[in-house]
Amino acid sequence: MLFDWSKISRSEYPPDRLDRSKYAEFLTNFLIEKGKDENYVLNLNAQWGAGKTWFLRRWAEEIENQYPVVFIDAWKSDHSKDPFLAVITEIQHGLIDKTDKSLLKSPFIANAWRMIKSVAPEATKAVIKTKFGVDIDKATDFISSEGAADIGAKLVEAAMSAHEEANKSIEDFKKAINSWLESVIGSNRGYDYPLFIFIDELDRCRPTYAIEMLETIKHLFDMKRVVFVIATDKEQLEHSIKAVYGVGFDSQRYLNRFFNRTLTLRKPNHYEFIFEIVSSSVILQNHLGNKNNSWFIVEVGDSSYIEQYSKILSAISQVLHMDLRTINQWMERIEASIANISARFDFIFLALVLSVNCISSEKYNYITLGKLPVSSERDNFFKSMVGRGKLISESVSFKINGQVLGVSFPIDDYTNTSNSLRVKLIKLSIIELFYILWSIVIIDDKVDSLASTIKNFSRHLHQIDIFEIKDNAVLRAIILNDLKDSTLRLGDYADIVELACLLE
């Protein structure tokens, strides 16, 4: 089978930008062979942010026309007491959709569903209550009564009888499912073995429910020609199991009982993760895709601007050692901020201030009070935010166009010189860029500051390194020119940031 995930899917799942289709293709071929004659349970392990839900759903959609496919969101059924019913209900829905309508009313389909229901734990309780007059759920209320011995004997007898009936029902149930599956495969729709059952979000469930789900799969669904793909954050699931059995419990070994093998999806790097967020955000695309919203040259063709901004945002996130959860929170706060600003603002400065707030409220307060250390201490200021982690010296590149400053510059009160500045590629560290932007945002009269800045470098226009001299004076002038009409001050940015940070 060849999978092409380069375009949006039928169900509107976005294109695959991380080349993950090859994993689904590889696993499908493997599970087809394994599922021909045996039962197989694969654990798809992925940390938060690795895209396991997207991967699982896109994979299920890819093969649903060739193989019977059932998709179960375990988190949605977590409220129920019975994971067996959650699984079997989804299997029923999945198989009915793929069963020839002429067979749906046949005796063996009706019998299959009767057998299915007979295996449910709630049904077992009903058998005990009907045959022996003992309500399992209420039995403990009478254990201390005078009839405790009789009830105890009844419970033992009831349990043994129910166990025997359950064992027989389980075997009948497996035969019924296999017969039903056989009818689907033989319905001339092009389906083939095995039955693929995808289970997602198990690690988000209550620990007891997750354990019961795994036990159900192991003991009731160990049927030939059925394969399970169970997506989890295995580390998180191990913690959940320890919450039930105790800290010293070997949860890793316990989990390995349920899975034949585990495949771990690679976690996306910061750039890949941010690129996916920007690519799926209308708010971000509407703002970032407008070249008039930036002081640097934005390549708006295709997804170039998304790549451009994703690199900048990725550099910020790496300097501050953000994990994927923090990045996701940060990006949503950026979206919320953009949605609430009507005045002209600097996107990168906003993103930087929000990032500092995500990492250190103490440093954020220091910045928004208009305090920043001297240049020699600036690296240490950022390093203190990342604790013991090594400060990553991330740099970003921009193309800036000096022609936005006008056709000529004043050298003195009487003389002008033509503007010979053109497009220039500059490279700055994130820390450098932050301090330049901060020092501009705090200026009250940006028009006057722009004139002074231009005057300071205009007599040096013909020097080869004009863009680098005078503390990046040309860059400062270009940013000042972009923000000269903005009504936003540092306090206004702080107000927006603090509102956005209500999103926890």
UniProtKB/TrEMBL annotation:
Q: Which residues form the KAP NTPase domain?
A: 20-331
User: One Pfam family, short name please?
Assistant: KAP_NTPase
Taxonomically, which superkingdom?
Bacteria
- What InterPro entries would the database entry show? KAP_P-loop, P-loop_NTPase
Q: What is this protein called?
A: Predicted P-loop ATPase
List the source organism.
Yersinia enterocolitica
The lineage, from the top, is:
Bacteria, Pseudomonadati, Pseudomonadota, Gammaproteobacteria, Enterobacterales
